[in-house]
Amino acid sequence: MINDTKSINFFIAKIFGFYSFWLISEFYLSHEWGFYNTVWTYFYHIFLQVMHGGSVFVLENIMNYDVVTNYNSIAIVGSYGIVIGNNCVGFGLTYAFAALIISYPGPWKLKLAFIPVGAAFIAIINIIRTVVLTKTALTSGIFERIENHDLFNNIIYVIIFLLWMIWVRIIRKKTREKDQKRIPSTI
C-alpha cells in the first residue's frame, strides 16, 4: 500500500515509465523497427479479433441479425455498418489499466489474476459499444452525430479508475490482514 512520499514518487515514476514506453512504442518503434512493428501490429490484431468476433457473435447469435463482415468492419444487412480502427480496439486502454495495476504495490500473484479480469471487462464494454454502434447504424444513426470514440474513452476511463480503486481496496484489505496476523493478540 502506498503510505509515504517515497512510495508515491515510485508509483508516479513507474506510471511515467509505462506511459513513455507506450509513446515510444506507438509513435516511433512500431514505425521504424521491422520486428517491433510486427509484434506491435499483432497485438492490435488480437484486440481487433476479440472485439470483432465478440460483436459479431452478439449480433448474430443473441440479437439474431444477419451480419456482413470483413477484417475490420461489421454491418447488419441493410445498413452501412461500422469500420473498426486501431484506436478503437482498446489496446491502449487495456495497456493503461495494466500499467496502473503493475505500478501499484501488491503481490504479483494477485496482479496476474486481476489484470486479465480487468482486461476482459474492458473488452466486454468495448464489444457492447461496437454492438450499439452497429445497431444504431441500422436504425437511427444517432451515434454518427456525436464523437463516439471520445465518449467511449471518457466512460472507459471512469471504469478503469473504478477498477483501479477496487484493486487498491483489495491491497489495503490484504495489507490489514497481514498486519493483524503479525500483531499477537492479547487475552
How is the secondary structure organized here?
Blueprint: H1 5-32, H2 34-62, E1 67-70, E2 73-76, E3 82-83, H3 91-103, H4 108-138, H5 148-182
Antiparallel strand pairs: 1-2, 2-3
Helix pairs in contact: 1-2, 1-3, 2-4, 3-4, 3-5, 4-5
What structural category arises from helix and sheet content?
mainly alpha
Rg (CA only):
20 Å
What sequence of helices (H) and strands (E) makes up the elements?
HHEEEHHH
Strand order of the largest sheet: 1-2-3
Low-pLDDT residue intervals, each spanning 5 or more residues: none
Percentage of residues in DSSP E strands? 5-15%
Number of strands: 3
Question: How can the largest sheet be summarized?
Answer: 3 strands, antiparallel
Q: Could you estimate the helical fraction of the residues in percent?
A: over 70%
Q: How would you describe this protein?
A:
This protein is mainly alpha-helical and 187 residues long. It has one domain (5-177). The protein contains five helices and three strands, in the order ααβββααα. The chain has helices at residues 5-32, 34-62, 91-103, 108-138, 148-182, and strands spanning 67-70, 73-76, 82-83. The chain is globular and about 65 Å long. The mean pLDDT is 86.
Which descriptors apply to this entry?
3-stranded antiparallel β-sheet, single chain, 187 residues, globular, 5 helices, mainly alpha
